[in-house]
Amino acid sequence: MVRALMVLLLFQLAGTIIQEAMGLPIPGAVLGLVMLLAYLIWRGGPAPHLRNTAQGLLKNLGLLFVPAGVGVVTQLQVLRQNLLAIAVAIPVSTLLGLLVTGVLMNWFTTRAGGRADA
Amino acid sequence: MHSLLAPPFLHVWVYLQTQPLLGLSATLVVWEIACLVDRRAGHAALSNPTVLSIIALAILLLATHTSYTAYFNGAVYIQFLLGPATVALAVPMYANWPAIKQNFLAIMVSITAGSVVAAGSAMLIAHALGAPRVVVISLGPKSVTTPIAMGISQNLGGQPSLTAVFVMITAMIGSLAMSLVFRLGRVRDWRARGLAAGMAAHGLGTSRMLVLNQTAGAFGGLAIGLNGIVTSVMLPLLVNVLGL
User: Fold this and answer.
1) Across all residues in chain A, what is the average pLDDT?
2) Total domains present in chain B
3) Cβ B165–A94 below 8 Å, yes or no?
4) What is the pTM for the complete model shown?
5) Could you tell me which residues come within 8 angstroms of residue B229 by beta carbon, excluding any fewer than 6 positions away?
6) Distance CA A98, CA B119 (A)
7) If chain B, 244 residues long, is cut into consecutive pieces of 10 residues, what is the mean pLDDT of each piece?
8) What is the ipTM of this complex?
């Protein structure tokens, strides 16, 4: 587990170094994700210790969002002041996003023939 | 809180406010209780343990007049794990690699279009309704999984905790509305449904898809990771183009 944590941290560290050095707007952890994915494809899959630790971390992903979410107590005034903008922007954009991705992908897969509509 | 406490307890309370132990313990205790509630409620969409924990802890902080800074002293150790967890998303993405490779172009076009429309329309609507720049920017990455969304928001001058709240609201709305949207848009293919659910409502949408159809669940997981990457690259450009 320690070794897997080290691997994840080193990929994140490498991603963060690249981000800072090149002034990229992409978070270092995302660059780390891309590099780890490339490494896994090249190596032909994760070692068991890495797979277990990754699954353990991702199974508890919900807990990791909590501290940031509690930060809402520092934003209550901003939320109140922009209630209308937020209450319109989020539902409308979410439905549009769902529709665009769903309809496009559905069009691609139906055109390719192999429909998976069980 | 201070006025309620006798001197020896007041001393302990003041001391604990400067230490990480209390914030860290409180987060884990509340999380365990929220998971218990979620199991009892049969994992209903509205009993999401993350949402329950945030509400409970926020009320606790406000009721005891504890500052967020004091709480975050301890909670920061949990937050730190978001980085390695983001990197760990590569493992389930690798598991879906054959499916990605086979439909690579279709997947990338569908996700990029959905991501641009979702982020662009959210920011434009908020801007038109008079929201300040920090709110507009914080709305941009709301369809991305929280650890990535917060990083993007931070980099573009948004407010990460505001983004975290928006991500949560988006996930709940998306999960509740997706069956209706798919019926209206005649989205019948389970790969397309899963991809759209993961793109627009990330983890929450995907977990719902996993209950309905395995393939849809796999494509949902795939969309979470890919949308994080696509939005990281697209959003800075989009903010520039829209002049926000």
Assistant:
1) 89
2) 2
3) no
4) 0.81
5) A26, A30, A33, A34
6) 12
7) 70 82 93 92 75 91 92 91 88 83 90 94 95 94 86 89 88 84 91 88 74 77 85 92 83
8) 0.87
Per DSSP, the three-state class of B62 is: helix
Do residue B93 and residue B152 come from a single domain?
yes
Q: What pLDDT score was predicted for residue A118?
A: 43
The Cα of A100 is separated from the nearest Cα of chain B by a number of Å equal to 5
A46 and A80 co-located in one domain: no
The pLDDT value recorded for residue B46 is: 67
Q: Let me know whether A39 and A96 are in one domain.
A: no
A78 and A34 together in one domain: no
Domain boundary among B49, B80, B111: B80
Q: Which of B75, B113, B126 sits opposite A100 (nearest CB)?
A: B113
The answer to whether residues A2 and A60 belong to one domain is yes
Of A25, A69, A96, the CB nearest to B121: A96
**Spans of chain A below 70 pLDDT:** 113-118
Q: What is the per-residue DSSP string for B18-38?
A: TSHHHHHHHHHHHHHHHHHHH
Q: Which residue of A has its CA nearest to B89?
A: A33
Same structural domain, A25 and A73: no
Q: Output the pLDDT for position A102.
A: 93
The gap between the terminal CA atoms of chain B, to the nearest Å, is 43
Domain identity same for A59 and A30: yes
Closest C-alpha to B191, from A7, A16, A50, A112? A112
Burial of residue A60 (number of CB atoms within 10 Å: 0-12, 13-18, 19+): middle
Separation CA B174–CA B33 (nearest Å): 26
Chain B contacts in chain A segment 1-30 (CB below 8 A): 5, 8-9, 11-12, 15, 25-30
CB contact under 8 A, B111 and A101: yes
Q: Please state the domain count of chain A.
A: 2
